[in-house]
Amino acid sequence: MCGIIGYIGDRAACEVIVKGLKRLEYRGYDSAGVVTEDKGKLFIKKGAGAIDELTEKLGLLEMPGKRGIGHTRWATHGVPSDVNAHPHTDCTGKIALVHNGIIENFAEIREYLLSRGHAFKSDTDTEVIAHLIEEELKSAPSFEDAMRNALLKLRGSFALGIIYAGEPDRLYFVRNESPLVLGIGDGENFAASDVPAFLEYTNRAIFLDDGEYAVIGKDFYVIKKLATGEVVEKPVQRIEWTLEMAEKSGYPHFMLKEIYEQPRAIKDAIHGNIDAVKRTAKEIARYEKIFIIAMGTSYHAGLVGRYLFQRLAKRVPIVEDASEFRYEFEDLIDEDTLVIAITQSGETADTLAAMKLAKKRGAKVLAIVNVVGSMATRVADMTLYTHAGPEIGVAATKTYTTQLTVLTMLAIELARVLGTADEAYLSSLEDGLQRVPDLVESVLKHDAALRELAESLADRRDFFYIGRGINVPTALEGALKLKEISYIHAEGLSAGELKHGPLALLEEGVPVVAVAPSGKTFDKMMGNVEESRARGAFIIGLGDREELRRVSSAFIEMPGIDELLTPIVYIIPLQLIAYHLAVLRGNDPDKPRNLAKSVTVE
């Protein structure tokens, strides 16, 4: 969840670092700090609060030096405070570092270091790393050896940026189960938790793998294995994202910009996977025991995937939270198992842990990921990319619809390989999928009306979202969007569950969002709408049938499309309703409280 940015070159390091930290704000943070070096002395400024406030209050842009490291912290050990903010130093003040992750054995290391006379200033697990390197430096032949010796004693997850006053020509960056990427420039080099932090300066990147560290100078870089010190040759990848793609482009919030980017993103997901899904479908056709694992919004995409697989390919996957998968299904995984892992960042800790377990048990692992070079792509046997581009808003929008697009393509092609569906129908579905970007574009034209609807509902305390069949996940995702950015209580559920308890909560004026496209369960859905209406609910109907319009308090007319494609299109107005309610209630939809974009700690 934390963000790291490092720079060495001829520019003022503080300016590059502060810009980089601003571009990492979407990861979520409670404090921030910067360390630079000039003439053999380290300068550190840090504190709790927002980067803009700290920049002015502490004078971050006045720090001297042409190399340095910055950090945004999300508290895991020690409360958010000035003292607990990163960077942290050793007793000598010559070693400073920043850290993303959790050190599991920090308590025992701290006790050891206290016995050796070290004094601690914070409550964090991170500070022990600086002191441990200091302790190792007493006997190691070089700083690099001391760093390696210290880090090999750690248990846990960490991405580290390290600066040593005694080596003015280099910085160190280490990865173990937390993301880190190098930016390769001309006469300058960078490192960061994510590409947008340095994309203004270079689009050449190297993604570090677990157990690797990098030494970077202004004119050189070298990557080595942490365990052995052996040099590792890694390819430089050219990032196709422009800086403008990672910025707001005139929209008031990243989330709204990314909602409007969905027609293009879906189109890119289709065009980028035509050949890939054909290869993948052939690879996975033999598997009958299938698990889909994911968290949050990606989990809802997985639920849609289950319906697609069972309706088209006659395969019935088990969809499970990645956090529960390895505790409940370990004994069922073997070489005849396929595990499909869905993660927008490719760095979600729970999903990565589940993927590694599946690999250990001999399963075939397919990852559906947005970020090229992310850890999930290296753990998996096969990868399908969603090609959504950078998503800065914490609430997933375009990464969700591109996940659905890829899952739809894969289910169609798998059905074709297995011969489980009529070819004419599969071809018609593919034709329908090609139309989806234009249909999404047409739905976005409801935006003004949806904002007016949100204005009339901004004071409501509870919402219910209902659907049936393949649109139960749409109801779940719509409710999640509302909860995470507007802070309004919302429940998503199968409409058939209403009379089994939730109807007791319906009273006059409570909004019930009915996701009701034409399809095999439409008539049943209408019955559920009527029973909600009879209890005084305010019905918000999403559909393409006049019958639904007549019983809705507010009706959102949706385009006609095959029921299996409706989840991609029907989520759009629900994203917009959530966005407008968040803004109307004075919330920042890009940075919802208590949440972060990529959950890299379990």
TrEMBL record:
One of its GO terms (molecular function) is glutamine-fructose-6-phosphate transaminase (isomerizing) activity. GO terms for cellular component: cytoplasm. The keyword Repeat applies. Gene3D superfamilies: Glucose-6-phosphate isomerase like protein, domain 1 (3.40.50.10490), Glutamine Phosphoribosylpyrophosphate, subunit 1, domain 1 (3.60.20.10). InterPro entries: GATase_2_dom (IPR017932), GFAT (IPR005855), GFAT_N (IPR047084), GlmS/AgaS_SIS (IPR035466), GlmS/FrlB_SIS (IPR035490), Ntn_hydrolases_N (IPR029055), SIS_dom (IPR001347), SIS_dom_sf (IPR046348). Keywords: Aminotransferase, Cytoplasm, Glutamine amidotransferase, Repeat, Transferase. It catalyses: D-fructose 6-phosphate + L-glutamine = D-glucosamine 6-phosphate + L-glutamate. Pfam families: GATase_6, SIS. Residues 2-219 form the Glutamine amidotransferase type-2 domain. It is an enzyme of class 2 (transferase). Its EC number is 2.6.1.16. Homodimer. This is Glutamine--fructose-6-phosphate aminotransferase [isomerizing]. It comes from Thermococcus indicus. The lineage of its organism: Archaea, Methanobacteriati, Methanobacteriota, Thermococci, Thermococcales. The gene is glmS.
